[in-house]
Amino acid sequence: ENMKINTITYNSAIAALAxxxxxxxxxxxxxxxxPGGGWSKVESSNPAYDENILWQKAxxxxxxxxxxxxxxxxxxxxxxxSTCGAAGRWQESLDLxxxxxxxxxxxxxxxxxxxxxxxxxxxxxxxxxxxxxMKKDGLQPDLVAYNALINAGTMSNxxxxxxxxxxEMCNTNRREKVSPxxxxxxxxxxxxxxGMGKINRERADKVFADAVSRGIILKEDSLDSSWEVDLSRMxxxxxxxxxxxxxRRIAKSAKNGELDVKxxxxxxxxxxxxxxxxxxxxxELKPAVFCVVPKLxxxxxxxxxxxxxxxxxxxxx
Length: 317
Known about the structure:
Number of strands: 5
Largest sheet: 3 strands, mixed
Strand content: 5-15%
Strand order of the largest sheet: 3-4-5
Structural class: mainly alpha
Number of helices: 14
Helix content: 55-70%
Order of helices and strands: HEEHHHHHHHHHHEHEHEH
Mean pLDDT: 85
Shape: elongated
Radius of gyration: 24 Å
């Protein structure tokens, strides 16, 4: 009866709620990319999740600490914001950031979790403001923070801003240790692909070329070769950009006399990806590139030498 609940006890409880909320969010809320452009929001099939009160419980504990005079530290607020972020409770996350500023200094985890909350609610402007506030507070955004903001731009369909963030990441000083990864690439390409139009296509091509030069994708030490490339693990938008890059590279190398042209294969897996890539090669490349599916390799698209030469001859210098 004389045991008094302290900061550590409260923090442990809030952290447990945050962990549970993130787990539920990963399982029950996601956005699926639709071939051809656009996003399909997949809602929870579990009615209990729609009435999820984990974030409310976290807020209740934070308020209890205030009422009982228990010290609230950065871990308290960061965990509560993380719980709200997983549930997409962006306004509550912003309120917690404001409360945190009155008692302690917000850290990267708190800011990033609040940005994630905005992303889950498709709120670009408050996410961008949080990102800038982080910088003003002297906190250098790390890869997780950048990816969170880029995700907000993806969900809110902000291709220009997302492209600018990619450029910013690529231009950061080495000492800041911020460099895009495969998650960044996937989000940025998807956003530009969704934005459509010539300018976004050109931006996507630049981003993909940057990623190749940085060793993020189509790595030199992979099993890919000049005449066989595996697209099966790429997202649809990234695979689409990869096709443009690969065929452009083949044409350039062939014209420079660096390659002896022969049959070329794309590994796609025997799935929707195979037919999607077939459409990309046929409808987007000029002249059109037609391919076949080898009888014993149903997960592969093969471009015959004659077809490839026709494509190469159709490219301007």
